[in-house]
Amino acid sequence: MRSIHNFSSVSRILAFAAGGLLAAAGADNLHAQAPAALIPSAVAVSASSTVTVQNDRLQAWLRAEAENANPAAAASQVNAAIAKAIAEARAYPSIKVATAGYSTQQVSDKQKPNRWRVVQTLSLDSGDFTAAANLITRLQDEDGLLLSGMGFSLADKTRRDAEDSVTQQAIKSWQARAQQAALGLGFAGWRPGHVTVQTGDGGRAYPMLRAQAMGSSAGPAPVSLEAGTTEVSVSVSGEAILAPVAVPTR
After folding, report:
1. Could you report the per-residue pLDDT of 227-246, keeping only the tens digit for each?
2. Residue range 83-128, pLDDT digits in tens
3. Cα(225)–Cα(209) distance, integer angstroms
4. Which one, of 168, 172, 174, lies nearest residue 232 by Cα?
5. Which residues, in sequence order, are CB contacts of 158 under 8 Å at separation 6+?
6. Cα separation of 47 and 175, whole Å?
């Protein structure tokens, strides 16, 4: 009786294992028959467009500086010079005037006694180049201010208008390249995937002051300006999802 009972138990175990194997084989067969998800083909495409725009804003920085053994005296001299310059600049409503850096430092020199140097900067911003040149010249010749630097750029509206225009050109160029890539790779068409549009500029011009004089000989000649240009560029990059060629049904 004991041997029969053992044989029956083994039979049940073998039958259960066989059933499990058949179930697993069936699951594998169903999994093999399930169609795999198709990953669409894509190609990376980039394009850019650039336009050259005449600069229409001027920025200039002038400074008043003084040295004195008494720091208060040096500061008083600089403060008076800047106050006078601001008052004179009010006669030019097309020019934005603002005070910038202010510094006081002690100067040590073996050949001279210790002294204090005070410096303050005045910034000018304008789209009227003639008025700006006249004011810069006046502040240098009459008030003794020193020209620290000068640069040119685009006004905000001018830059926005240029970017809007060149963005449309860059997008059209990107679309044309995507179409060429699809046809060249043997696909029937394409659609845009993830695409980014970025704007930038090619840098700003900082020309040197020209030596030629302007104006009459009765007074000091205004500073001569050459604004130069700025390149505004827009780049478009992203993926073009390619559409496969349709297979005719039979």
Report:
1. 899 999 999 999 999 987 65
2. 999 999 999 999 999 998 899 999 888 888 889 999 999 999 999 9
3. 6
4. 168
5. 53, 56
6. 9
